[in-house]
Each structure stands twice: as structure tokens, then as C-alpha cells.
Specification:
284 residues; mainly alpha; two-stranded antiparallel sheet; 2 strands; 74% helix; globular
């Protein structure tokens, strides 16, 4: 029986020489939805605090920053709504395609970026898979948080099963995932937990940016300069956090695919040696 360290070793071996393709594929898969203080004077009581607040509001309104902030928030909200709709429609098929990519990766079958889009003719299956998994998980979570978490592990192998067995319905793939995960949920939990060190390491760069940002905001107080610094440096924090995820996501997903191969017993058989004159050795 393999352990978390074994699956990570398989993932590293599979990714050797294929990191650029795996990073690009993981990044696009994440986009598809398959893979984020005020100064001391304002704390004083009395009319002084209210006056400072009114003065700040008037300053923002007269400077035009208020309109810029409000417009930016509205545009961001519209973009998020459009993105959520697109991810809802394409996310399931993207998960199936990403499962196909990672299975090819751990099988040593030369995965390609186009594999991510290889299941887009199954938009309905992908959508139903995501919908059913979400509904079942939420219903179990209504009993208590723990049953919902346990069931989420039970359903974790569904994308791999449905990707490899298009003859199955999404609900049948969920049932099969529950079957093969029986007795293996704790192993998957340990595998996910084994990546916590890398997750903490990925959190270091954004933290190093947030700390000076916080000090800057405290030093400048609730002024226009502080607002500008927030608008500039906050996206930098998000970008730095994404950089770590670019490398961690392919590593984790390859390990998950190796885990599926192990518990389902579907590791590809090695090719038989071929005799140049008589065909395979089994035919002799």
C-alpha cells in the first residue's frame, strides 16, 4: 500500500520535464473553475473624530477618488458575475479534461495542453457532475459540518471516473467514487494534509507584502494616499499568492491522479517486449 510520500514521489517523477505544460494547463483549468487600519487620531472620541471623517469624505468626493473607487467596484462586480456564469457552464467539462490530463501525466502518456479541452463535448455531463456533487455535499453538511467534509472526500474521484468511463452517468460515477473511496478517505486526507508545508511556503510572499502595506496604511491614516496604496498593493498580494499556486496545483493534482490509479487498481500495464521476428513473447 502506498502512502502520501509515495504519491508525491510519483507526481514529481511524472512532472519531470513537463512542468511548463503542467503549470499552463493548471492555470487555465483554475480560470475555468475546475483550482484567494486607521491612524491613531480617528480613534479619539468626541466631535474631532466625526469632523475628520466628514473631511475625509469631502476630500474623496472633491478629488474624484470616490467615483473611481465606486466605478472600479461596479466593474469588478460585473466581471465576477460573468466569470461565475462562465465557470458554472464550463467548469465541469474543464474538470473532466484536467482529470484526463493528469491521468495521462502519471501514466507517462505524454499529456498535452489540448487535453484540458478534450471533454468540452460533454458540457452536460460536467455540469451535472458539479451540480450533483455540490448538492449532495451541501445536504450532508446540513446534518453537521463533519459529514459534509467526509462526503466531499467520498466524491473526490468522480472526475477521474467520469473522464475514463463516458458510458456512465454523473450519478453512477459518484456512486463508483463512493465505492472505491470506502476505507480510503483517511488516506486521501493525509495526502492533502502532506501539502500543508508547501501551502505555508506559498503564503510567505503575500504576507511579506501585506505587512508593509499595513504599516503604510497605519502611518498615512485614512487619507487618499493610503487608499491609493491599498488599490495598488492589494493586487500585488493576490498576484504573489497566485505564483505559488501555479507550482503547487500541478504537483497536488498529479499526486491525486496517482492516488486514483492506486485505489482503483487501474495502473496501465507495462508493454510486453516485442521480438523483431515473431511478435510478442507471449505468442512464442
Amino acid at each position: 500500500m502506498k502512502f502520501a510520500a509515495d504519491f508525491r514521489a510519483i507526481a514529481r517523477a511524472a512532472l519531470r520535464g513537463k512542468w511548463p505544460t503542467a503549470i499552463l494547463t493548471g492555470f487555465v483549468a483554475s480560470l475555468l473553475g475546475a483550482g484567494i487600519a486607521s491612524g491613531g487620531g480617528s480613534f479619539n472620541g468626541g466631535s474631532q473624530s466625526g469632523g475628520d471623517g466628514d473631511a475625509l469624505l469631502r476630500q474623496l468626493q472633491h478629488s474624484g477618488y470616490w467615483q473611481i473607487i465606486a466605478t472600479s467596484l461596479m466593474i469588478a462586480a460585473v466581471i465576477l458575475v460573468i466569470y461565475a456564469i462562465v465557470a458554472l457552464i464550463l467548469g465541469g467539462a474543464g474538470r473532466l479534461g484536467y482529470a484526463t490530463f493528469n491521468l495521462k501525466l502519471v501514466d507517462g502518456r505524454s499529456p498535452a495542453f489540448r487535453d484540458l479541452f478534450s471533454q468540452f463535448h460533454r458540457l452536460g455531463d460536467g455540469f451535472c457532475m458539479n451540480l450533483l456533487v455540490s448538492v449532495y455535499t451541501v445536504l450532508w453538511s446540513l446534518l453537521f459540518i463533519i459529514p459534509g467534509i467526509i462526503k466531499s472526500f467520498s466524491y473526490a474521484m468522480t472526475p477521474y471516473i467520469l473522464a475514463e468511463h463516458p458510458e456512465l452517468t454523473p450519478n453512477e460515477a459518484i456512486t463508483e467514487s463512493r465505492r472505491i473511496m470506502e476505507g480510503n478517505r483517511w488516506r486521501l486526507f493525509c495526502l492533502q494534509l502532506s501539502f500543508i508545508g508547501w501551502e505555508l511556503l506559498c503564503a510567505v510572499p503575500p504576507l511579506l507584502t501585506i505587512i508593509p502595506l499595513s504599516l503604510l496604511m497605519v502611518g498615512m491614516g485614512p487619507a487618499i494616499g493610503g487608499v491609493a496604496a491599498l488599490l495598488i498593493l492589494l493586487p500585488v498580494c493576490v498576484l504573489l499568492a497566485a505564483v505559488g499556486a501555479l507550482f503547487l496545483t500541478p504537483y497536488r493534482e498529479a499526486a491525486n491522479a496517482a492516488f486514483y490509479r492506486e485505489i482503483s487498481g487501474t495502473w496501465p500495464q507495462p508493454e510486453e517486449p516485442v521480438s523483431p521476428e515473431y511478435g510478442t513473447w507471449t505468442q512464442l
